[in-house]
Structures are given as structure tokens and as C-alpha cells.
Specification:
Number of helices: 9
Bound molecules: protoporphyrin IX containing FE
Number of domains: 1
Structural class: mainly alpha
Radius of gyration: 18 Å
Strand content: under 5%
Largest sheet: none
Length: about 200
């Protein structure tokens, strides 16, 4: 399939979670606490997109799926899109747009603090993801975009700190994040020892 068509297919597939959410909301299938369900649903998909984006390089190297590289930027931008949507849904559905209570909320939910640098980093990565910025920043672009690893760790701690009854999500996201960051540490060490 030509890259252009793949791009369209990936774009449509990436919008599917949003379509599912709208259908669930319209048909009253969001459960007993629909507002909370919206925040959790979008938050979960933000993490999935983060993991999918982080999988592109390992899939290229280990499974020889180099064609994915042409779509890494779009997947990264979808991570940003869902993260912003997750944040907005929190402000609208949980905070009720009452920003005067945000300070008290941070005391009640300190895990939100961790997401502030994560969101800022994601926005910076999104802005600098263009070819023009890549050329302009040169080697620094690669260094800057390693910031996605920090986002992954912050996002995972954010999930871990809000565990109430089940550890399932925190364990799943933790194992996958660890695997995707661990493989990079392994490659980095291999590269270093080859240079010695
Ligand atoms: C990289 C960014 C982020 C990722 C990957 C992310 C991911 C997630 C995930 C996976 C959950 C569900 C955890 C579970 O299964 O129990 C969640 C919940 C939550 N997130 Fe995020 N999040 C991000 C940023 C943010 C931001 C910026 C805010 C708010 C300013 C936020 C506020 C919340 C809240 C309040 C919940 C819990 C909702 C509840 O249980 O009532 N998150 N997030």
C-alpha cells in the first residue's frame, strides 16, 4: 500500500476511540458515572498512543517494519491530541471548570502535578515535530525528542499513584513502558561498549 494511503488508514483508525466514546455517550453506555468514565477512557487511550509511538523504533529494528517510521510523527501527534482531550475532559467533567478549586484538587489528587511537565513536554515535542524544526535543531532534535521517555515515566507514575482497588492498568502500562524503555537502554549500552 502506498505511504499516502497508509497515512489515511492510520489517521482514521486513530480517530476510532473518539468515535467509540461518542457512540457510547450518545447511547448511554458509559456506566454509572459517565463523566468519570470519559476521563478514564481518554486517559487510557492517551497511554495506548504513547506506547504505540514508542513501539515504532523497536518494530523497525526487531521486526524490520521500517515503513512505520513514516507514521511515527502522526502517532506522536495523536498522543498529544488525546492527552489534551483527557486534560480538557478532566477540567470540564471533574473540575466543572471551577478553576478556583484547582489548588484543593492538587492536594486531593497530587498525581495531577506530574502530568503538568508531561503535557508541556508533549506540546514542545508536537511543535518541534516538523521537518523544518528537525533541520533547524539538527542533533539537538534527537536529544529533545528523547523527552518522550520522560513523558512515559511521568504518565506511568501518574497512573500508579491513583491506584485504588485494582493494579491491573498500572501493571500493564508499567510492564509495557519498562519493556519499551528497557530495550533502548540495552541498545544504548551495546552501542557504548562497541565504541570502547
Ligand atoms: C501524558 C499524559 C497523560 C496520560 C498518558 C494519562 C493517562 C491516564 C490514565 C491511563 C488514566 C486512568 C488510570 C486508571 O486506569 O485508573 C488517567 C486518569 C486520570 N488522569 Fe490522566 N493522563 C495524562 C495526563 C493527565 C492530565 C494533564 C490530567 C489533568 C490535568 C490528568 C488527570 C487525570 C485524572 C483526574 C484521572 C483519574 C480520573 C478519576 O479516576 O476520577 N491526566 N490518566
Amino acid at each position: 500500500m502506498p505511504t499516502r494511503w497508509r497515512r489515511i488508514v492510520i489517521f482514521i483508525l486513530s480517530l476510532l476511540p473518539l468515535v467509540v466514546l461518542v457512540v457510547k455517550a450518545a447511547t448511554n453506555h458509559l456506566g454509572a458515572d459517565p463523566q468519570k468514565a470519559v476521563v478514564l477512557f481518554i486517559g487510557t487511550w492517551t497511554f495506548y498512543f504513547l506506547l504505540i509511538t514508542l513501539s515504532v523504533t523497536p518494530l523497525k529494528k526487531l521486526a524490520k517494519q521500517g515503513w512505520l517510521m513514516a507514521h511515527r510523527r502522526m502517532l506522536g501527534l495523536f498522543t498529544l491530541f488525546y492527552a489534551v482531550l483527557h486534560m480538557i475532559s478532566y477540567f470540564v467533567f471533574i473540575l466543572g471548570l471551577d478553576f478556583s478549586s484547582f489548588g484543593a484538587e492538587l492536594v486531593k489528587r497530587p498525581y495531577i502535578l506530574l502530568t503538568i511537565p508531561a503535557i508541556i513536554l508533549l506540546i514542545i515535542l508536537g511543535i518541534t515535530s516538523t521537518k523544518g524544526m528537525m533541520r533547524k535543531l539538527g542533533k539537538n532534535w534527537v536529544k529533545l525528542h528523547k523527552g518522550i521517555y520522560i513523558v512515559a515515566v511521568l504518565a506511568w507514575v501518574h497512573v500508579l499513584l491513583q491506584v485504588r482497588s485494582s493494579y491491573a492498568d498500572a501493571v500493564l502500562f508499567g510492564v509495557l513502558t519498562l519493556a519499551l524503555l528497557g530495550i533502548r537502554i540495552f541498545w544504548w549500552q551495546q552501542k557504548k561498549s562497541a565504541q570502547v
